Amino acid sequence: MPETEQGVELLRARLALWLGVTAALATSYDVSANVVGVWALGRHWSDQVAHPGNWAVAAEVVAFVALYLWVTRGRPSLRQLRAIDVALIAILSLVGAYLSYLCPGAVHPGLDLGAPPSANLPIGVISNIAMLCMRAALIPSTPRRTLLIGALSTLPVLVSGYLVYREYLSEDAINFALGTTLVSLVVIPIPVLISRMIYDLRRQVEAAEQLGQYTLEAKIGEGGMGIVYRANHALLRRPTAIKLLPTHRVGAVSLARFEREVLETSRLSHPNTVAIFDYGRTAEGVFYYAMEYLEGLSFEQLVEHEGPQPEGRVVHLVRQVCGALAEAHRRGLVHRDVKPANLHLCVRGDVPDFVKVLDFGLAKQLETKDPKLSTAGAVLGTPLYMAPEVVASADSVDARADIYALGAVTYFLLTGSPPFRGDSPLAVFAQTLHQPPEPPSKRLGKAVSRELEQLVLRCLSKAPEQRPDSAAELAEELLAVSGVAAWSEADARRWWQERSQVVLEQIELARRDASSSGERTVAVDLERRRRA
User: Fold this and answer.
1) DSSP 8-state code for residue 285
2) 185 and 246: one domain?
3) What Cα–Cα distance (Å) separates residue 10 from each residue in 44, 218, 461?
4) Deepest in the core among 164, 303, 427, 480, taking most CB within 10 A?
């Protein structure tokens, strides 16, 4: 099994499922056998409870529950998960062998009437093979590992059976040992074959997820334009973010234009702009580009978990975005989709509160079916952060549309909500075109630096000419704002030390819940490669 996060998560989920199933089966079998023993066979509950076989089954169930809790809540490592896999089979085989020895006539104390064993194959051998087949179907495993586990798990049952037959039917003991060993040799290859088939299928999926020198590891995001995965470079062993844009999502013509935009974007060198390493197409027409992988969180996640931000921090963050936009605007690139989700906050080079701007210049040419990003396939961007001129005529977009969007982002950071809100994109568009934004101080219900508030409202002006002329000018005006407590590096470092881990854990938990409830999109995007 590949030692990737995706592989570990799959093993964790399958082990949890198998532990839950075996615990439920053991409990139901134990309870039903004891009930039958009491009601149908006239046994007494006190005798049943005192029987060591029932204690063995109870201990087995407790062990399964403890392992289940460890797998689901303790986050064990890959090595520990593999040890749990072996422990589960060992417990099953040892308890089965013990019951076969204690109750040779029935293999359960609830049904045991003291009858001698028959010369037939014990139930313990059959149940052990059934459990091995279940394991092979559920647990990702190489055939060799399945064969080894199968051989080890069968041994206690064979020894127990031999001891029973030697005691009750001495003349058949050797025959039993030879017979059950032969049967096991014939039957054990069945779970090995199951493991082999499933293992080969997983290898085919992994091959389908190989994009050039990059191996997809875990899905980390999805939007109207495509899907983002964390990946690993085969030679550099460097974590990378891969964005996939299937042709069926954006159209062949739009994809060709998008490819040119990625090439242009890769030439940007500002430290606050996400770096693009590589791009290309798969044989199936899936366009992808590789960019630096960023730990941390988006502005959207920051406000979602921490609420409105201090004014000094807002100024500090937005000025970094201005730097990245200024370089792009000088090169003739307009972002067109500046929004909190595209602005990433991280620690870079030991510098806390470092901002990275994502998806430069990637919105205009793309068609998307996501209603949050498009209306009728003509107006592109995100309505909550879209400038009035973009709503009126997308062809008239220039750098001042990014200034408007950055003003809306600043408003969002200050107040915890975008300037305009509505139940539909059309409702937001109507406010964007005709309604003045509510001042941040009124939205918050408390005072905000007057100069900062006026600057934000200027950025949100309906007329482009009333906004700051450039991102560089906006950065200078932000620096000159008075009445704002400075956000120092010490303040930033303190937040990352005291709050970041809590927030990031909440985000990761939400991501895992979302990924476990959804399908693996790459299985659809690369379907033809998998069939090849």
Assistant:
1) S
2) no
3) 45, 11, 51
4) 164
Contacts of 363 (CB under 8 A, 6+ apart): 225, 335, 336, 337, 373, 380, 381
Note whether 411 and 312 are same-domain residues: yes
Is 248:298 a contact under the CB 8 Å cutoff? no
Same domain, 462 and 360: yes
Count how many domains the chain has.
Answer: 2
pLDDT in tens, 294-345: 999 999 999 999 999 999 999 999 999 999 999 999 988 888 889 999 999 9
Would you state the torsion angle of the CA atoms of residues 487, 489, 492, 494, taken in this order, to the nearest 10 degrees? -120
Residues forming the active site? 337
- Euclidean distance between CA atoms 75 and 456, whole angstroms: 45
Compute how many other C-beta atoms are within 10 angstroms of the C-beta atom of residue 315: 24
In a domain? residue 167: yes
Q: Which long-range contacts (CB under 8 A, 24 or more apart) does 201-204 make?
A: 202/1, 202/140, 204/530
pTM exceeds 0.90: no
Between vectors from CA 368 to CA 434 and to CA 470, what angle results, nearest 5°? Answer: 50
CB 362 within 8 A of CB 259: no
Let me know if residue 495 belongs to a domain.
yes
Residue 528 falls within a domain, yes or no?
no
* Residue range of the domain that includes 164: 5-207
**245/386 same-domain check:** yes
pLDDT tens across 118-145, in order?
544 456 667 777 888 888 888 888 888 8
Convert the pLDDT of each residue in 481-493 to its tens digit: 998 999 999 999 9
Position 74 in a domain: yes
Nearest one of 63, 50, 69, 56 to 22, comparing CA atoms: 63
Say if residue 107 is in the same domain as residue 141.
Answer: yes
